[in-house]
Amino acid sequence: MRSLGDSVAVLKGVGQKRLTALNKLGINTINDLLTYFPRRYDDLSLKDLTTAVDGQKVTVKGQVITAPTLSFFGRKKSRLSFRIIINDNIYNVTFFNQPWLKKQLELEKPIIIFGTFDRNHNQIQGMKILNGDKSDTYDSIYPSNKEVKQATIKQLIQLAFTQYENLLIDIIPDWLRKKYRLESFHDTIQNIHFPTSPMAAQKAFRTAKFMEFFLFAMKLQLLKATQRQIEPAAQIAYDTNRIKAFKQQLSFKLTAAQQKVVTEILADLRRPIEMNRLLQGDVGSGKTVVAAIAILATISAGKQAAIMAPTEILAEQHANSFAKMFADQPVNIALLTGATSALARRAMLPSIKNGEVNLIVGTHALFQDQVDYDDLGLAVIDEQHRFGVNQRQALHQKGTSTNMLAMTATPIPRTLAITMYGDMDVSVIDELPQGRKPIKTTWIPSAKTNSALAFVKKQLEAGSQVYVVTPLIEESEAVDMKNALAIFERFKAIFEPAFSVGLLHGQMSDQQKDAAMADFKNNAFQVLVATTVIEVGVDVANANTMVIFDADHFGLAQLHQLRGRVGRGSKQSYCILIADPKNTIGKKRMKAIAGSTDGFFLSQKDLELRGQGDITGYKQSGMPDFKVADPVGDLNILTVANQEAQEIAQNSDWQKKPENVQLAKYLKYHQTITTD
Q1: Residue 20 pLDDT exceeds 70
Q2: DSSP bridge pairs for 89
Q3: CB-based contacts of 578: which residues, under 8 Å, 6+ apart?
Q4: Which of 555, 659, 542, 569 is nearest to 604 (CA)?
Q5: Residue 118: CB atoms within 10 Å
Q6: What's phi and psi for 425, nearest 5 deg?
């Protein structure tokens, strides 16, 4: 029985050497080959050079009127030159590094050439010589390597399509294809590889993108369903009265958004199903108190809770915050990080194992082999984008049916929320605490730095404090950027002795960092010159102004995070971006951050302008590996495909319906989600 899963070795002309070369391109099976899509198309229809644009790729038919001359440069470089005549006009033609083409040229004989037209020199830089029957088609151009040539890939795809086209069965249900005017799988493959027009290829690619997104979304729904199995151990029978009393003794009232999120989390904890929830909220939106309520609920049910932070400073800050919040509660806190001494660690581990300690705060140290828990009911992951899937999983496995709450202050664009976190329920705190005013943001070129300094002086004289952020610690010859040490000296010269200037950067020891943060908070410094270390940490209500030098060297999400350090008090706050972006994208990014305080809008914009590789200044891990679909450029298709997958999966017996037979069959054998 033939199948699309057959090895490409079954095709004529594929021996062991060629098979190895194809494998390097990711082509192992017939299905891999048929879904190895072109990266572009060359339009081989004949062009009229009198109307062609300079630099345009053209196909022309003419007559060779001069004998070709072949010149060699070095070992492998060559130039083949001759002239052709087209409608009484003479054009020079040059082919580089294709000396074998000389054999195909004959005086007075017609020739069809595909190449780039240089109008100024009346010249064509040739790319290939075509056969007569190729002059009215579109040529598919595939990613290739030295071992597998374009012609070989095309030949093998043609062979595979001829032999296996009857096995190209539709996986997407008919009603869904009709709803979105999608092509059959057979026609999609045919029109992508052998299109008769640009429109045919475009339509086929649209179907391929929908199909890729839809099947990915269906896999996520299956993953979600397996996580939703009844697990009695996951149920947290918390004490409602203790939660009510805790909320009442807080010095502030929860916002409507916080209350909504708390309700969602508590409802999850009550169910005998593991919680797998992502909590998103801008800097300062109050995620910590929401986490505190979830932690207290877990502890009130006699279970343990753990919170994992990416850095020791943040872990310490959480331990201090929770110690204050739970001062009147029977909560025993342990702080476990890489900096914990061996002595303290030895004393702590038995207390964690026997349940005496019921809140464990720490870093990666929380899931090390030697750390055993009594009954871990809840694991909270803070700034979760800094942890890989395996690290989150390692903490999860420290308990039996542990509930997971992942938190992030980085607003995640819809693209990533759907593709990276589609298996999670998402809660959003989209409201800042009462009394917070939007931060006024301005972008100025470095030539206007003096006006920013005058503004800073005015704010200092009014009794406010100021952050000054720069990308580098020390001056670098390689990079023309402001640096913290130079700016620190400059600000001291300008503002001292009237105002004190402090310094904070990543190369200082933890003790020095903590001291600098504490001094700024206590107003011992009125100006704090810092690198991005302040992205996480300091909460100073009196600091209402931030100046960011070389702002174009930061991601939008990171600038938004930094900006969130001001605007924490009742005063109007300001952020001044000083930048001289060198290209259009840089300018667009500066305009976007100056024009919006919406973190979700900015993160989507960052994704569009910079690509998905680096959203937050940290490499995104776990991004799905799509062949043709682009989660950023094809966001509308992604959203629709995701919605349809959710609709189908809501029906518990969807797999038994006749229209879903092929889809269910496919998913049974392809449940793995591929990520890069």
Answers
A1: yes
A2: 86
A3: 444, 445, 446, 448, 449, 452, 547, 548, 549, 550, 551
A4: 555
A5: 16
A6: -85, 140
